Amino acid sequence: MIVKILQKSKTFRAVRYNTNKVEKDKGELLKVSGFEALSGFSELKPQDYINYLSSLAALNKRVVYPQFHAMISSKGRAADKQSLVFLAEKWLMGMGYGSQPYMLIFHKDTDNNHIHIVSSRVDREGNKISDVFEKIRAYRVLNRLVGQDEKKSASEAVSKALQYQFSTVAQYLIILEAKGYSVKLVGDTYNVSKFGELVAKVDISKIHNSLAENGFSQERKAQLRNIFEKYRPLTNAKLLPVVENNLRGAHGKILRYYSALSERLSSDFGLEFVFHFKDDKGPYGYTVLDHAKKNVFKGGEIMALGKFAEVLSTAPHPSLVSFEPYDPVRPGHFPEENMLLESLPLPVMEELYPGSEEGGHIGDFSFGLDIADDIDDEQINGRNRRKKGKPRTNTR
Asked: How far apart are CA 347 and CA 269, in angstroms?
């Protein structure tokens, strides 16, 4: 399961975005709670909900962005709409929104069932619902609900990464970064963190021992070289950046690079490509994570970057750029609210990394649901594609 808190808004535009989905039979309004004052209306319209939420927002003029808009998604159809409603209700309680007026809208126009949540950040007494570390808390609350043990998952990730064949410590770290972890060396130990929380440790000696024990498969290198040579002429190899999309439409830093070729090889052969770059300069090298055979290769040892990809020397024209909202918790691939509401046809690339912070105990619930690969609405991303997670920008 994944959760995303969308960009804040000064108005409650998300109500119309979601009701438009319902009108087009791409969504379904499953639950409305806390709007008792509207019970006397014979026929409720989207503007009625907007007016009510706006009246709450008016109780606290200091809150500049009163709209609360979030999404929760399962992988594929693992969760039906009733399960998502139950999960969303418990999640709202854990986030402090259980007593707030809210709308739950199920979206059925993508490969992954997901539900949108719209509420107000201002309560009936004019108090602001706490947003302290809310992106981190969002995942910690969700993980408790679905029985996700982050420390156990991190321990497994550390152990599995040691089973790969790699030639440098940096290559080992790339495996963990690709899983959404941040790693920091403290003394002789690497601290592995996720969602701002220390979730595992790995002694540098263990990594060095794996370097000595693991040998590289020249046969696999040759096999990948043949695959690259076969698909390179058939697929667009132009490298394009994915950049953060800041407020007011400003273009932020480059998060990573991809190409149609790298995406196809990822999908067909279980490979993951990490292109190394600095600032706004084009990539100067790349690493291949061979998940199918558990290898980490320096890309140039298989095929030189200049031959494998069309590399831009500087940042390209904005028309060539794919946008992603910047999420300080983890690399994001979700659309920001302005993207959702304006229906921009942006080819957003990515996987998801769970992320999160402290919330009160809200019960033990286990849904047995898998992590979703993508919940972006098709109108934003074009057809949903299989995504591959990329580590944060690095220069290894």
From this structure: 22
Residues 327, 105: Cα–Cα separation, whole Å: 24
Taken in order 187, 188, 189, 190, the sign of the CA dihedral is: positive
Q: How far apart are CA 192 and CA 161, in angstroms?
A: 12
Going from the C-alpha of 286 to that of each of 131, 298, 304, 393, 394, the distances in angstroms are 38, 7, 9, 12, 11
Other CB atoms within 10 Å distance of the CB of residue 327: 18
3-state secondary structure of 194: strand
Q: What does the buried/exposed string (b/e) look like for 101-135 if buried means 16 or more CB atoms within 10 Å of the residue's CB?
A: bbbbbbbeebbbbbbbbbbbbbbeeeeebebebbb
Spacing of C-alpha 65 from chain mean position:
22
- Predicted confidence at residue 251, as pLDDT, reads 62
Using an 8 Å Cβ cutoff, are 97 and 68 in contact? yes
Is residue 225 within 8 Å of residue 302, measured between CB atoms?
yes
Positions in the chain whose pLDDT score sits under 50? 247-248, 324-396
Rounded to whole angstroms, the Cα distance separating 84 from 132 reads 25
CA distance 129 to 137: 13
Order of all β-strands in the sheet with 285-290: 271-276, 285-290, 295-298
Structural contact between residues 170 and 394, judged by C-beta atoms closer than 8 angstroms: no
Amino acid at 238: K
Residue with tokens 């690709």: 178
**Phi and psi at residue 371, in whole multiples of 5°?**
-80, 135
Q: Please identify which residue in the block is written with the tokens 């909900």.
A: 49
Starting at the earlier edge strand, list the strands of the sheet with 322-324: 251-258, 240-245, 322-324
Whether 65 and 10 have beta carbons less than 8 Å apart is answered as yes
Compute the distance between CA of residue 382 and CA of residue 372 in angstroms, rounded to an integer.
18
